């Protein structure tokens, strides 16, 4: 998946995962963003992971359904390019499944293909992914 699939990429390309996105949108003390502005991308499974995280927050009593709907509006307001996962990417995810969950592998595969930095708050993912791609955790 070449970088030219992005309309007018500006600066570095960042693949954002759900752990970072939820922390950024939910927490009052927002995590630090990478120092250089860039283009944000993710596999389209991010949408489902984000909804699942909101559901968990509702069920735990950490947020109301109304608050979750506001966060969903915030999610759709982010300048973020979502990429459908291709058959070839699915196969790469499967080959990496001994190192990552297949969900996490989707972010790593996209970061590798796009020569992008993976932005995550999942420290276990970060430790393993940094063997394959550049990683930013904000810490």
Task: Provide keyphrases for this structure.
about 140 residues, alpha/beta, Rossmann fold, 5 strands, about 45% helix, globular, metal-binding, PIN-like_dom_sf, magnesium
Task: Give a verbal description of the structure.
It comes from Mobiluncus porci. InterPro entries: PIN-like_dom_sf (IPR029060), PIN_dom (IPR002716), PIN_Pae0151-like (IPR044153), TypeII_TA_RNase_PINc/VapC (IPR051619). Residues 14-127 form the PIN domain. It holds the Pfam family PIN. By secondary structure, the chain is α/β, with parallel strands linked by helices. The chain has a single domain (13-136), classed as 5'-nuclease (Rossmann fold). Helices cover 47% and strands 12% of the residues. A 5-stranded parallel sheet has the order 3-2-1-4-5. Strand 1, helix 1 (18-26) and strand 2 form a beta-alpha-beta unit. The longest helix is centred in the middle third of the chain and has 15 residues, at 45-59. The protein is globular, with a radius of gyration of 15 Å. The two termini are 30 Å apart.
Shape: globular
Spatial order of the strands forming the largest sheet: 3-2-1-4-5
Major β-sheet, in short?
Answer: 5 strands, parallel
The level-1 CATH class: Alpha Beta
- Percent helix among the residues? 40-55%
């Amino acid at each position: 998946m070449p970088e030219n699939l992005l309309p007018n990429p500006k600066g570095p390309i960042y693949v954002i995962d759900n752990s970072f996105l939820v922390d950024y949108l939910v927490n009052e003390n927002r995590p630090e963003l990478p120092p250089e502005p860039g283009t944000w991308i993710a596999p389209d499974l991010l949408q489902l992971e984000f909804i699942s995280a909101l559901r968990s927050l509702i069920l735990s009593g950490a947020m109301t359904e109304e608050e979750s709907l506001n966060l969903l509006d915030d999610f759709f307001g982010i300048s973020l390019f979502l990429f459908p996962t291709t058959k070839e990417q699915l196969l790469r995810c499967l080959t990496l499944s001994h190192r990552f969950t297949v969900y996490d592998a989707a972010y790593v595969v996209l970061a590798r293909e796009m020569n992008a930095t993976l932005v995550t708050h999942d420290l276990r993912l970060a430790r393993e992914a940094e063997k394959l791609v550049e990683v930013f955790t904000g810490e």
